[in-house]
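[09:14] KT: can someone run the structure on this one? pasting the chain below
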Amino acid sequence: MDRLSDMDDFLAQLRLELEDIEQDLACPGLRRSCHSAADFGCGAGLTTISLLLELGTPELQGIDKDARLIQAAKDGMEGLRLSLLSGEAEDSEDQLIARLRVALESGRSVSFSIGDIISPHGLPRNLDLAFCRRVLIPIHDNEYSNPVSGMIAAQRAIKNIAATVTPGGQMLIVEKHVVDFRPALEKAGLDLQQFDCYGRGDIGTSKRVTLYETPYLRYLCTRL
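[09:31] RB: done, structure tokens below
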């Protein structure tokens, strides 16, 4: 991202991700202002950057087991930082670019690292908020070739993510309405505060699919 014109595709995808994140975080009882948060299953970092814009946290981490995606997230974040802070975006009236510049100029810490929520290796500790979206169903269905699958694998992932959260901290999970993970949350020592369902069109390569809506379940929990 050496020039502002090279950011068009990135910003288009980010706008769509931001719409999803705004809906996911519109959850009664969620504490948006916290000291540290992590995005588990961050992929190439678009969800993490969206969380940066929506959460008032000075320390934000993106975690994924795929080293290639983590490197892509690091490269994308560095490219974004260089483009926005080098003066290339100064004349832009785009509100999203303005929000990104403010977030980056604030000095808030954003990092990406490899971590496996099944193992669990490389996971952070003492988080105030753990965010996890569209990760448990693929683990349940063994899409990532883990040594275990089904509810056993999902429950292990939930337990490991819950262990990263400080007592009294929160965990927000958003998953497709395929499997109900409430029993696994209870076994992991989490107190379910909010549970609801909503739908939205999935994000395609260049726009949102509007022919149908995918139902999602949202779980907001507090670690006991």
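[09:33] KT: thanks! The longest strand covers residues 165-176.
[09:34] RB: yep, looked fine to me
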